[in-house]
User: Fold these one by one.
Assistant:
Number 1:
Amino acid sequence: MHVDLPSLLESGVGDQVMAVCIKPYTGREREMWDIALNNYQQLRYTQMPRLHFALEGCLALSKGWELPFHPLVASLTWNGDNPYAGGIGSQMDLTDLGRKLVKQFTRENTAIDVSHLNDRSRKSLLQLGLPVCATHCNARALCNGHNRNLPDEDIVEIARNGGVIGTTFVPEFLEDSGSDATIESVINHMEYVAELTSIDSVGFGSDFDGVGKLPRGISGAGSWHKVLYGLENRGWSNKDIDKAAGGNWRRFFKLDKEFSG
């Protein structure tokens, strides 16, 4: 496990997004859906860190299953396609059902995540002009080995509409040879996005507990101080570190407004 309560508290994490994804559990989808929602129901009112429900792939919705909470953020697909859009590994485009769903999500203040869409679906979604984010993607210009990473033009378009790109710690998304990935690799991608757009578009999208291996120097949520020190050592100001460490996400998700009293 990369995430546990003691390490979150030790690192001073204020908000933790918990993604529910049932697609990998072939034959056990409904079981995993019920377990995840039950766990979230029990934990959702914790004071520190505040936990937020994310929907990674809308397979459950296509099955007509109940969604008892509005997700903070949702991606239409996981790695394959579904009735809404084409995911990584698919050539399918955004569908009419997908367009309808993202507009519904936007009305309900659920943010749209492009992280698992293929290039075709993602570009069609961006053309709708909605505020979207990439919760865990990196810059394709620095690491072209995985098609989950974003081309420059898509990073610019996401930022133009106020979105945030969360740099993920997945080694293969950081370096073409994943074994070379380090904390410095994480910062390289963050600086690239900041220089291409602005510091207001940069965030973290660690994918803790969603990946088997992590970059050298990072073992889980207890390693946040090392990552933040790495930013400081590169000359980032306290203000910019605060934005990257959570401020930009809280602004995009409107969390400060939601919890202001």
Number 2:
Amino acid sequence: MGLFRLLSIAVLACCIVIGPTRAAQAEWPERTVKIIVPFPPGSANDAAARIFADALSRRWGKSVIIEDRTGAEGTIGVAAFVSAQDDHTLLYTVAGSVTVAPLLIDKLPYDVERDLRPIAATTSIVLTLAVSNDIGASTISELIDGLKAQPGKYAWTSGPTLPRYVFAAFLKRRGLSMNYVSYRDAAQPQADLGEGRIQALVTSLAASQSPVQTGKARFLAVINPVRAAALPDVKTARELGYPELEIDGLAGIFGSRSMPDALKERIAADVAAVCADTEVRRKLEAAGLNVLAGTVEELRAGIERQRAWLAEVAQLIDIRDAR
């Protein structure tokens, strides 16, 4: 009988310890959830994060707010997230925060493996290759012929990091010469493409569609692995026979290293449900994004593919000065 009482006490003690933990997880979130976005307001990732925040706030019954912390290739925002160490603070960022940042900055203020824990893939920014009408190219093949005929005559620019790397490596592989133009104002390249001051622009759909809509430029390809819902008739670079132009603007949600696995799994399940919502998908696709499945496996696999691609590209170009 004494042994039975001891066992009963032990079981009761375990229930006291485990019970509140499960209850706390069930009650999460207990307060406002903050999502840090290391991109400026109005950017494709900022727009996506706000759509997810709105949908998740309805599922969670608590406010979900966005805090844009920009600068230093996104590392300022990531560092702010890492320093928070709060299970009510999430990070919405691209895979490049894990894959590219360590290649650009010698001493990051955080460890990408230890401090950024993948929770769920969310979207892939639609990335395009657009050219000005004055270059007279309707296909990638015609663009190549024009560049070979007049090396060094034409200019190009791109969105940061991955779009810049992919086109610089494409030029290097093909022995082509173009002049790279650097911009501080992200809105200016669209205007310059339309006016013929630059002839090629490799960036997000949202940041390139204006001159195409006004008939001053055209899309030659979508450079994601799959076509864009917003541009169903524009083929991918791979479909057109130029797989070396393919990249994926993968984005997702990350948690802190202290976040319990059970909570990460719960958040991932909610993100997957949001990704499957018809109205959410419509909003995201209208913002120039392809919607993903919302799983952690998808995010991890995308990060590994991007690392392998970067290793190959780094043998062709200088990652820190791609042009």
Number 3:
Amino acid sequence: MTDLLKRDLQLIAAGVDLFAEAAAGQAARVTRIDWSPPLAGTEADLATVLADPRRADANAEAVRRVQAVRALLVDVLPAGEVLGLGPRTMLHAGPPIDWVRASGPLRGALMGAAAFEGLVADPQDAVGPLERGEITLDPCHHHSAVGPMAGVITRSMWVFVLEDPATGRRAYCSLNEGLGKVLRYGAYSDDVIERLRWMSSVLGPILQAGVRRNGPVDVTAILAQMVQMGDEAHNRNRAGTLMLLRELLPAMIESGFPASDVAEAARFVGGNDHFFLNLAMPACKLALDAARDIPGSTMVVAMARNGTDFGIQVSGTGDAWFTGAAQVPDGLYLGDFGPDDANPDIGDSAITETIGLGGFAMAAAPAIVRFVGGTVADALANTRRMYEITLAEHATFAVPVLDFRGTPLGIDVTKVLRTGILPQINTGMAGKVAGTGQVGAGLVTPPLDIFPKALRALAAAAAA
């Protein structure tokens, strides 16, 4: 004890702040840990899962697989061609849902998509076929795809095709429409449909020609640069969008398409700071899918919302969804919109947080607080707090302000329940009435009750 007191001590304080404040007042070095007892009722399942001899190695393998993936943009193609979608099949964000339980923005996007595909003359005419189940709905995640907000993908929409060269596995995402009144936020006016038609007839083919002429684009490398340039790859993608355009523009110009069309495509991409989001998402999906189906692993491999339910999938529990009620984000609103106008959280874009970007990497993108609310100090605190519920740090995504510490990687179900800390997501907000479009942006967390459900399944698997 005498020898211990001669050392330069550092204190770790958990729980009540009184002790930490007293020590700090005496110039002691204090690290404060945000901790609370495990959620009541989870103790037995936690004990079972933590005692699983497979867990440590399984989680280490999950982390290794995620970090080994290199996501390359290799093509741009119609969704029907690569996803095998029929004329009456529509993909959507989040866990499975039917028309009866669908939220306003998801309904609006499905109605608009039906008009875009020519299934109906007017979006309102799609309600009947959707109610009767004449149009099949299926999650994007079930097709190696992801979609932002409502996430609706139909056969005539073009998608980015990302591939891991080491394994040949692929992931897909639609092209980004921009902000405001767009299909993914549930808007379906004539200008929304017309924009989608232009994207399929002009933008998609030009991007395809650019990628094929240029060669594969290393999306993982761009993501790494983005994090060091002030993007967090969810609601801030400005640097990523411009790096993508720099990579593809010469090949687009040389593609043989009319100069006016190429100029319009370049203007659209360059003027849409969120364009790269639809590449970041499938890159994250591709990496996390590599960690699926590892017996004993407690790593979350997907977080997704359909505007009604928030669902997670976990490596050690196969394709099962664990769901709860989606929450309304807390943030900033556009114009005269307010909390009463906002729909509960929606979209597959939380796949970025699942890998440690987005809300987990806000320390790398302090300017994001001007879009989602809060302060720069909040952004730093959010990232630091996420290290407490994750398994590792990403070797590729380094945060300059944290001395190039890797972003938090691998949400651990057991750590969430042991600490009471929930994953932090920054997100856009859709109007709850179909046809409204975007009403704001903010911060949100998953409902707490989905994690005990996942833990129960992990405990059952461990005891089997």
